Amino acid sequence: MKVAIADDDPIVCSSLSTILTATGTADVIWTANDGQSALDCFQAVGGRPDVLLLDVQMPGMDGLEAAERIIALDPAARVLFLTTFADKEYISRALALGAKGYVIKQDVASVVPALQAVMAGQTVLGAEAVANLSLGKQEEQTRKDPSKPVPRRFQTLTDRECEIVTLVADGLDNQAIASRLCLSEGTVRNHISAILAKTNLANRTQLAVEWLSSQES
């Protein structure tokens, strides 16, 4: 794949380029150190990568504004945020803009699989990003209307399945969900497989993103 990197730290750009090239994951076609440069490079002839790795906070035009303009230019653009900021507001805005994922820099090992997942059409959220979105939802629960109808995608789920989806969105793994609900891990896996089939989602990350987004609307 062809990848571009926009980060205000040239060392980060260089290190990521080395990792992606050395592992045979991608060819890095350009790097930029601010949002305006990223936008300019994207608009240049041959400047549109398969995936753009984009930092949030950069001088001048930040990554969120750059992403908004890039996606407006090319709605099919795949933007994957890679940043040190796991702020709920940043994550929510990035996803609302149409970004394909949000990964925290500390988890460098997740960059390659995240790029591969985005290329496969998936939406990617790092564990810390999912946890922060979940905490935000918990804080808002008292302000939500409990009588709000269930979104159409989730209307066919049973009460137990909705309970499991909520725990997945809270960042719990199968073992923790099984312990919380006094079920076996196998039963939890079967429930999640059934939920994914009913909702036509590819994996638990997409499930968490869709569920959390539905609670905002």
From TrEMBL:
Residue ranges occupied by any Response regulatory domain in the UniProt entry: 2-120
Domain HTH luxR-type, first and last residues per copy: 150-215
InterPro entries cross-referenced by the UniProt entry: CheY-like_superfamily, NreC/VraR/RcsB-like_REC, Sig_transdc_resp-reg_C-effctor, Sig_transdc_resp-reg_receiver, Tscrpt_reg_LuxR_C, WalR-like
UniProt keyword Transport, yes or no: no
Protein's GO biological process: phosphorelay signal transduction system; regulation of DNA-templated transcription
Gene Ontology terms for molecular function: DNA binding
Assigned keywords, A-Z: DNA-binding, Phosphoprotein
PANTHER family: TWO-COMPONENT RESPONSE REGULATOR (PTHR43214)
Protein name in UniProt: Response regulator
Organism: Bifidobacterium asteroides
Lineage: Bacteria, Bacillati, Actinomycetota, Actinomycetes, Bifidobacteriales
